[in-house]
Design brief:
By secondary structure, the protein is of the alpha/beta class. The chain has 2 domains: 69 residues, no CATH class; 148 residues, NAD(P)-binding Rossmann-like Domain (Rossmann fold). The protein contains 8 helices and 10 strands. The strands form 2 sheets. It has a 6-stranded parallel β-sheet with strand order 7-6-5-8-9-10, with helices on both faces. It has a 4-stranded antiparallel β-sheet with strand order 2-1-4-3, with helices on both faces. Helix 3 packs across helix 8.
């Protein structure tokens, strides 16, 4: 690998950007590609599939053989609200390969006893997310039912293009939420990205079942996300 390619690969990984090293087996040579940069033809389709799955491997495309070495940032789940659903989701997330962080300013809920071994922050999201911001490889799950706590991180998740944004609440609650977010300047297309009611429709009733439904929806969104464009400048 050329030194310039290695530097670009490492820079992308530091910035939590998905990147693939494409090695031309027949012709020789490598190419570093950040998610969102265009590639034409069958190779472009193979690269898009690799970005979605996170799997490296050989592909035959456009009359050549290529090895795709994919590097995806570890996906995060940020949960707003230290509730019963969050307790169940925290246990399941690690098994599925996700880092998880719980944020809730309500110290009666956000206790180490209820979330042993979990990254838990008992503070307001507006303050926490300044220090540890969201990004494109973060799933935001808002479950407090309190707009004073939920609305800011939901808005941040839309601005930062998190791959998943979900919010707990009835259709009436969500309609009211949308009105507040519209008043804050969000467009219809942005608001349509919010999953509410939250989770895959499996008829979930208990907190654990709702957590299963949420995690399934997060995985679905991660593996089917749009990889055709990326934000900001390339490393």
């Amino acid at each position: 690998m050329e030194l310039a390619d290695l530097k670009r690969l490492n820079a992308a990984r530091r910035e939590r950007m998905a990147v693939v090293l494409i090695t031309d087996i027949d012709g020789g040579g490598d190419r570093v590609l950040v998610e969102g940069e265009p590639v034409d033809g069958a190779l472009g389709e193979a690269v898009a599939a690799a970005f979605r799955s996170g799997r490296s491997g050989m592909v035959e495309a456009d009359g050549g053989s290529f090895f795709l070495n994919v590097h995806l940032p570890p996906p995060h789940i940020v949960v707003i609200g230290a509730v019963h659903i969050s307790q169940a989701l925290a246990q399941m997330a690690g098994v599925a390969g996700f880092d998880i962080r719980i944020i809730d300013p309500r110290t009666a809920f956000a206790t180490p006893e209820r979330f042993a071994g979990i990254d838990l922050v008992a503070d307001w999201p507006v303050d926490v997310l300044k220090e540890r911001p969201l990004d494109r490889y973060t799933a935001l799950v808002a479950v407090t039912h309190d707009p004073k706590i939920d609305d800011f991180p939901i808005g941040e998740a839309l601005r930062e293009e998190c791959f998943y944004v979900g919010a707990l609440g009835s259709r009436r609650t969500h309609a009211t939420r949308l009105e507040r977010l519209k008043a804050a300047g969000f467009a219809e297309a942005e608001l349509a990205r919010i999953h509410a009611p939250i989770g895959v429709a499996i008829g979930a009733a208990s907190p654990a079942e709702i957590a299963v439904a949420i995690l399934a929806e997060i995985i679905q969104c991660l593996r089917t996300r749009d990889v055709s464009g990326a934000r900001d400048a390339r490393p």
